[in-house]
Amino acid sequence: MAGLSVYLVVGAATSAQAMHIAEGFLPVQWAAFWWILALPFFLFGLRSLSRITKEHPEIKLLLALVGSFTFVLSALKIPSVTGSASHPTGTGLGAILFGASVMAVLGSLVLLFQALLLAHGGLTTLGANMFSMAIAGPLIAYGVYHLLLKTGNQKLAIFIASALANLLTYIITSIQLALAFPAASGGVLAAFLKFAGIFALTQVPLAIIEGLLTVLVWNWLQEYNQKELATLNLIKN
């Protein structure tokens, strides 16, 4: 992703790794800015995670499943254009099950392990990646899910919430890169439109697939984890 933004802004032809901003790519001031912005969400999420595990220790396995789901999906790299890659996020499911604050912690841990074990993303850019994937994505998923739940179609709400979590993550990442590297002609807006537009070719269908996959996982949870879902007030026992 880092290489692609350089290509879009200054014309350099370099490989990219979409969504996870590469280690050392952001200018120091922007890396620090996103760290400062992301940390309060992470700390609040720790409190929420601690509370929910104390009140309902029986859901720890479900938490582990959500973390694994996010790790596996967001580690997948699907070839895109200009030598870059797109991938799912997997954060919508966790936001629906446990709320956006808990997912801020789980998503951040996933990003940390990917940076350390897979060289996917980085430590200096972890704050920016946290904000796009672990904070913004889950927030929109949680809000959209509860808004659409009023229609009475829970599975439709899950599908749309998960798909939008994926898309918003890429939109936020595009904004982050555009702010750090505005185009010489057109500034931040031009850089954002170029970066976001080039990934729309693969990311829109990928978001739809992620929404469908999340519904399939939800169906599986309904069949085998009814007690835990009832504990979280997501279904009636």
UniProtKB/TrEMBL annotation:
Membrane-spanning intervals of the chain: 28-49, 61-81, 93-119, 126-145, 157-183, 195-221
Pfam name, any one: CbiM
Main location: membrane
Molecular functions (GO terms): cobalt ion transmembrane transporter activity
Alphabetized InterPro entries for the sequence: CbiM, CbiM/NikMN
Keywords tagged on the record: Cell membrane, Cobalamin biosynthesis, Cobalt, Cobalt transport, Ion transport, Membrane, Transmembrane, Transmembrane helix, Transport
GO term, biological process aspect, one: cobalamin biosynthetic process
Localisation per UniProt entry: Cell inner membrane; Cell membrane
GO CC aspect terms: ATP-binding cassette (ABC) transporter complex
Mode of membrane association: Multi-pass membrane protein
Pathway: Cofactor biosynthesis; adenosylcobalamin biosynthesis
Family stated for the protein in its record: Belongs to the CbiM family.
Function comment: Part of the energy-coupling factor (ECF) transporter complex CbiMNOQ involved in cobalt import.
Subunit structure of this chain's protein: Forms an energy-coupling factor (ECF) transporter complex composed of an ATP-binding protein (A component, CbiO), a transmembrane protein (T component, CbiQ) and 2 possible substrate-capture proteins (S components, CbiM and CbiN) of unknown stoichimetry.
Name by which UniProt lists this protein: Cobalt transport protein CbiM
Natural source organism: Hyella patelloides LEGE 07179
